[in-house]
Amino acid sequence: MERIPILKFGDILLVTIQVDFHDRIALALQEDLTEKIVNLSAKGVLIDISALEMVDSFMGRVLGNIAKTSRLLDCYAVLVGMQPAIAITITELGVTLTGIHTALTAEAGIDLLNDMIKSKSNGKVHAKRQVAKWR
Amino acid sequence: MRSAVKMHAEDIGFSKLNQTKIVTTASELGRNVLEHGNGGRVMIEHIKELDRSGLRMIFQDEGPGIDNVEKALVDGYTSKCGLGLGLSGSKRLMDDFELVSQPNNGTTITVTKWT
Ligand SMILES: Nc1ncnc2c1ncn2[C@@H]1O[C@H](COP(=O)(O)OP(=O)(O)O)[C@@H](O)[C@H]1O
Ligand SMILES: [Mg+2]
Question: How many CB pairs under 8 A join A and B?
Fold first, then answer.
């Protein structure tokens, strides 16, 4: 079966969704990504949807699930390149995509991911220090 | 099916936004025909009236039908495990929406978007 390629770039996985994002490909992507996040200890996933000409409620759910699953695996997901017409259409459709981070361009998305990854590791150090102090 | 709908919508001269709304509706209602209606057919028509022109899509199946249409049209209602936005969302995305269904007698949904 056809699958969407997942590229690794440092701590980050890059996925470019092609025009033909059918149901089975979408579910396979969700599975492949989850596996790669764990196996490659990825800290971020960038999903580029600029080639997509529509997102329906099924795809919206898959994208939302990818973001949620990533979070459970200690990884952030950022969606980039959504066409304005799609943003308007899914809002009217009622798909909320709550909790999904977005950026307009791939570059801005990488910056956002790096910021989130960095501030998280800073936060950890900070928490440890605090624990030490409280003791 | 999606690309056929897209081609028609482009030919008729819909804006990018309306093309997106039409293709998204086609995807939602087409999925319902397969998922809930045991398969069926879709007709796409270019309609021309004196003062306006539009695209009409008819989704027809001989599946189980919908016993409570009002309930099925509520945002978030799903009898399986979908998001329950296909019917209610399509109604918002299109200009006209007509649903005819009887239990055990299939479902026909006709939607129209005007340019
Ligand atoms: N063609 C159909 N035949 C029978 N039932 C349908 C059909 N389309 C929709 N329904 C019913 O209406 C409900 C709502 O549909 P929809 O808004 O698309 O949500 P979803 O598909 O996510 O369940 C479905 O769960 C199903 O019970
Ligand atoms: Mg549906």
Answer: 65
